[in-house]
Amino acid sequence: MQFFNNHFILRIAAATILIMHSIPGMFNNGINDFGNLYLNSIGFAPFGLYLAWAIKLSHAAAAICFLANRWLKPAAIITTCILVAGIIMVHYPEGWFVVGGGRNGMEFNFLLIAVMLTFIFPGGEKQNAAAPKQ
After folding, report:
1. How many of the other CB atoms lie within 10 Å of CB of 132?
2. Fewer CB within 10 A of the end CB, N or C, for the chain?
3. Whole-prediction pTM
C-alpha cells in the first residue's frame, strides 16, 4: 500500500475535517458540553460524557489512520456509524442544509459518509465482484 495513492486528497481532507471536529472540543469544553448537556439530556445519562469522549477520540484516531494510510476500512466503518447516528440524532431534525437554506442540517455528514465509503470499498465494484474482464 503506497502513501500517495488515488485516495490521497480524500484522506487528507477527511483527516483535516475529523481533527477540526474533535481536537478543539477537547480544550474548549465542547466535548463535555456535548456529553453532559446534550447526550445526558436525551437519555444517555450517566454515560453521555463518556460517549462524547469516545466519539471524539475515535474521530482523532480515524484522522491519524487516514494520514498514515493504515487501517482505513476499520476507521471508516466506525466513523460512518458515528456519522449516521449524528444524522439520526442531531442533523435530520434540522433538515438538509448546513447553511443557506437551513442550519445544522445533514448535507455535510452525507458527503463525509460518501468519502468513508470510498475507503471501505476502494476498488468499487470491480474489486468486490468477480466480473469478467472486457
Report:
1. 4
2. C
3. 0.86
